[in-house]
Design brief:
The structure is a homotrimer of 360-residue chains. Chain A has 360 residues and is of the alpha/beta class. Chain A is built from 5 helices and 40 strands. Chain A has a 12-stranded mixed beta sheet with strand order 8-11-14-17-20-25-28-31-34-37-39-40, with helices on one face. Chain A has a 10-stranded parallel beta sheet with strand order 9-12-15-18-21-26-29-32-35-38, with no helix packed on it. Chain A has a 9-stranded parallel beta sheet with strand order 10-13-16-19-24-27-30-33-36, with no helix packed on it. The radius of gyration of chain A is 27 Å and the shape is flat. The termini of chain A are far apart.
């Protein structure tokens, strides 16, 4: 079995460059008959590889690359390039599309493997796979072509959608729903209890607020290794369709993540965070509770958001500010020691003047 | 099996509001005969639900809620409310208490499930449950009504206390002790080696310091998904009774966490941290090694603590400062660009005066 | 089975102090015939224990320790010490070496345990152990004396080197290589997909960039609980020999970590980070993508690195700066509110002078 689609270890199909260019509305510059056997980054590429040039910063890497051909932007100056290139609107996107052409889709054999534990009250589609060491609880539904990887746990009444894969050692707890074509990497935990307690001063204890809600992961969501999406206190925690979550991310109870959002590694959402559509949170960002981050908003790495973020805004810092303001303050901060000196000198000069002016 | 107590999927018991009010020393305002079938937050609640109003910030949500009744504070102005209410000292706490009335306690069948692996030298109470894919090692003791969830690993000589639940895929390594009524969410790791090495410059290697201590989790502790409590180098790492730890938290070797403390998601404690009673660390806080955080101290989110924190103090920032001082500095920082301009203008004015004064 | 080497629960071998001193080129001060039965930190030590004194900060603990003997530096003043001591060049390193003398090496019985699932196309060395609930996939190779702990998943064509231990619930995905004498703590995930997507604005979706590379963990690497090392997009993500990674660390795709580096808990490396030899990243550090951190560079806790770090440099802050500059700015920041006041007073004095000077 495989954790992800992968290039075959042995021989690969080769394709003519011109044929690949057609898939991405590209215009070949140079020899279109070059045979391409795979894709790779500029620095990793060798003969037979198609690479891409998406950022002027990598001009040197472009010129030193051993790739046989490169995807470039419509207006990039690639006159110094000695290999063929393909002009496209978005080299990075074209690279992604073409890369998928070279992926061997490994099919896991359908059925329940020896060493998997399936409750008789669970429903497993005949095309789905349940691998060794996985447990499927009563009332769970595993849909077509879904793969429940080794050591994964699927709780009661959970639904796992078509073509979704729990790679290995994933836990999806009771009553949670996972949509179609999702990819949950190892160690992902869906539906652990939200973190909610009320302190009882008389008895000297934190009284647990029962977490009786659930989690709904919509279609086409990817969740990185060891990330956690907590169950709602009541109602649902939702990850919207097409959103992508990196490793070690915490999604607090009752959070609502809109579609097509991107949460980079080690981001933490407190409870009841509301993220719009296409939000991007860079690595290690923290969002305080009960806040709204608007559509297409972007939050820079390590920021701490403690107030709502407007649609389309870019914020930065801890606590976060509009990024231009933050950068101005940051630049000013670097001058602080100098500013202190200036101020001292000024004070001395002022004293001198004052003394002078009091003298007759 | 269930990962946590949960409301029954089908019919629920209903209770009269006046009866629930009595459980929490509450005074009904309005109709006490209203039937309540469950609890929910103000925004999630529907007919038949009891909700709570704990913060003036949510006045709008209170008035728009579809709940059939609401727990409110003794002095809250709820004249605009059209449904029944119950006056209590602490609405949040009362909500927690009443919510537990509606939780169906799912009993996992006792015994060792098919597909669980129990060493003959382990002791499993006859009322305890060991689920499929779990492994119990030699000398381990699983006490009354404890549940060892699917795919969990319990090492040699580990003791798991009465009524404690390891939800799924939890690892408790050799010689660690977990008290009674604890709840360990999926992916929790208790007793991984502390991070300790001594560099040997001659041999060019980091020499491992054997981590021969253990971990003791006291009673009534909850630990969130994928959190880690490391084994002591020698002696014990301790999590005090009634403390609650959220997801993805790191507790370094030889840390001592006092009772009733709260560690929010993604907090990191370096080795030999000492936390008092009732400490609250907000999300993503880091505590440097060998520090003491006093009783009832509070540390704001994303703070970095690099010196001891006094009892009852609230600190903030990285490095952390008393929170008032931090807020003052933060406010001043926002004015820095303006301050720079002021200083420049001042300098010019001073120069003008100086020139004037030197002129005869 | 045991997760790590551990002192025997019952009787231990005792050794004369003079004999232990010889192992570390130490000079005994006092009685060399004292019998030592184990090692412990100054505060945890009791009679029969050898401890160490590595930092002047712990003088009080040294004098109050109940240890029977202490390792001290060649030039430490220990005249107040009433027990025997051993003078060595590096007490911490000597402690590590001697501690290993008291560790009982628990041998896990070789072979495939009942309840482990090994594909017939996998190769398991006859001296290796595969424990209950572990899955070994087709083409995987498990080398001599390696231990694949309970509930671990080993993907296709993975190679696990001699004497390497996957403690429990570890996932090593297809095609990844783990060297000899490595220690992977519970919940570690090697080879989850790198986080790479290209946005397709027309179709409104994030298109996955297939992650077809792999991960190579070199010899003598330790990786802490629930840490993740992502698979390269193409090529390899590499963790260099002898590097040590703490818990909950994220290593992004295509990162290259040089040998003998130290990554503390909750560190995050973005994709394509390059770390030199002997780099030290303190807790919760974040490294932005495509950066180079030079040999022996050190990054302080919670720092955010957004530009290359030179060999041997120490940086601090978010964004990080040379640590002296950062400390200067930080000190100046604390004076900001005072500085604002000074500036106001100065302005008033200047105004007074100006008025005076304009008067005839």
């Amino acid at each position: 079995m495989t954790a992800s689609p992968r290039q075959p270890p042995g021989a690969r199909a080769t394709r003519a460059l011109v044929e690949l260019a057609a898939l991405v509305d590209g215009v070949v510059v140079g020899d279109g008959s070059v045979l391409i056997s795979g894709v790779a980054g500029l620095e990793q590429a060798g003969p037979g590889h198609l690479s891409f040039y998406g950022n002027q910063k990598y001009k040197r890497q472009l010129l030193e690359s051993k790739a046989s051909a490169v995807l470039v932007g419509r207006d990039d100056d690639v006159s110094a390039l000695t290999v063929s290139s393909v002009r496209v609107a978005n080299p990075h996107l074209a690279f992604a599309r073409i890369a998928q052409e070279f992926v061997r889709q490994v099919r896991v054999p359908p059925g329940v493997a020896v060493g998997a534990f399936v409750h008789p009250g669970a429903t497993i589609d005949s095309t789905a796979s349940v691998l060794a060491g996985a447990t499927i609880s009563e009332g769970a539904v595993i849909k077509a072509r879904a793969v429940i990887g080794a050591g994964s746990f699927v709780g009661e009444r959970v639904v796992i959608g078509d073509d979704t894969r729990l790679v290995a050692n994933v836990s999806v707890l009771d009553d949670c729903l996972v949509g179609a074509r999702c990819l949950l990497h190892p160690g992902v935990v869906i539906g652990a209890d939200g973190f909610g307690f009320a302190f009882d001063g008389e008895q000297g204890q934190h009284v647990k607020i029962p977490q009786t809600g659930s989690v709904r992961i919509e279609d086409d969501v990817e969740i990185g290794a060891n990330s956690c999406v907590d169950r709602a206190t009541t109602g649902e925690t939702v990850v919207g369709h097409g959103s992508k979550i990196d490793n070690l991310v915490q999604v607090g109870h009752n959070s609502l993540i809109g579609p097509l959002s991107i949460l980079c590694a080690q981001v933490g959402l407190s409870g009841t965070s509301v993220l719009g559509t296409g939000v991007v949170l860079a690595g290690q960002v923290g969002i305080a509770g009960h806040l709204k981050v608007g559509d297409l908003a972007r939050v820079a790495a390590q920021s701490g958001v403690i107030s709502d973020v407007a649609d389309g805004a870019t914020v930065m810092g801890s606590p976060s500010l509009p990024h231009r303001e933050h950068l101005r303050i940051q630049a000013a901060s670097r001058l602080l020691p100098a500013l202190q000196k200036t101020l001292k000198a000024l004070t001395r000069r002022l004293e001198a003047l004052e003394q002078k002016s009091t003298k007759p």
